[in-house]
Amino acid sequence: MNPPVLFEEKAASNGMRVGIATLNAPQTLNGLSLEMVDLLAERLDVWARDAGLAIVVLQGAGDKAFSAGGDLHGLYRSMQQHRGQGAWANRLARDFFEREYRLDYRIHTYPKPLLCWGHGIVMGGGVGLMMGASHRVVSETSRIAMPEISIGLFPDVGGSWLLNRMPGRTGLFLALTGAHLNTSDAFYAGVADFRLDSADWPRFMQTLLDTPWAGQAGGPGNGAPPPRSINDGLLRRALLAHEPPAPLPPGPLRQHAFQINSLCSGNDLGAIHQAIAALEEHADPWLARAAATMLAGSPGSARLAFTLQQRTRLCSLADVFRTEYIAALACAAHGDFAEGIRALLIDKDKQPKWNPATLDDASEAWVQRFFEPPWPEGEPHPLADLGPPEN
């Protein structure tokens, strides 16, 4: 059986090494399992302490996807087993979301340059891995989305933090519609830093081995390690040297940004939902598909995503993860999460029976249950040590 994550260290010309981690489940579009999370977290910690390792590259096996999301089949089985037992009873959900969010936060705060090759499909949990990387690289095949409204979840893995930092109200639009970003819009939305043609990736990887990385190739050595900025700059230079010369035309998100900002303005989710729904017959297929996806999606997920963005707008990244953890466990216990997975991946009838069935029923009062800590009173938040809390 092939290992779910492949790890490799390659020596550069001056003896420093490049660490390469490859998600190795192409048959499931590199869907992220708990085992993969744990393997990545363990190796990233080792590499962080290794004075002879200059940079880390994170990629996905195959040519279709970096990662299309998390292990929804495993989470579905756990939700079925613990139905009606409350949010804290589902040990797999507790472990998966805690350790996944810890890994994502670790990547955001990693002490060395970390390049993520976001080729092909990047969705859900894949976005969580990519967004914290110091050098986020896309290709002509990249398709990035947070489509959780279609499975009764919400844009988690720090999605509330990420979407709040996109231009205008585009982050809210993407949360409500699950709309895909192409390569050009990935830059506009602030989720990509560099681009390479996929055919040029092998040549770029060889360039990394020809680069004179700063560090201590023989071990800790004497004196302080060189500043990280040296290797950040060397990696940036290598990426820019391989950047395709042709400029990218504006993507649909940027083309329609003025209209999207107008539709999603204000704090009345009902009015915003209605305005987006009116796009269902729009001549632009990207807008029409966005509206159709929202209308077919979970009303509860729409309310939860909207409320999360409102509540976390001024929060630190660590506090966003803490808030999302509580909401994710609530979704696993009594939200539409299990029903969305059933309709999309298990029975594949694509006829989910959402509860609540309408946005009016998914009210501001209804959504408060997704912010109530489920663990026994007096116990600390499982992610309490993730970072400094808000004052």
UniProtKB/TrEMBL annotation:
Its EC number is 3.1.2.4. Residues 371-391 are annotated as: Disordered. Residues 18-371 form the Enoyl-CoA hydratase/isomerase domain. GO terms for molecular function: 3-hydroxyisobutyryl-CoA hydrolase activity. Keywords: Hydrolase. Pfam families: ECH_2. This is 3-hydroxyisobutyryl-CoA hydrolase. It comes from Bordetella genomosp. 7.
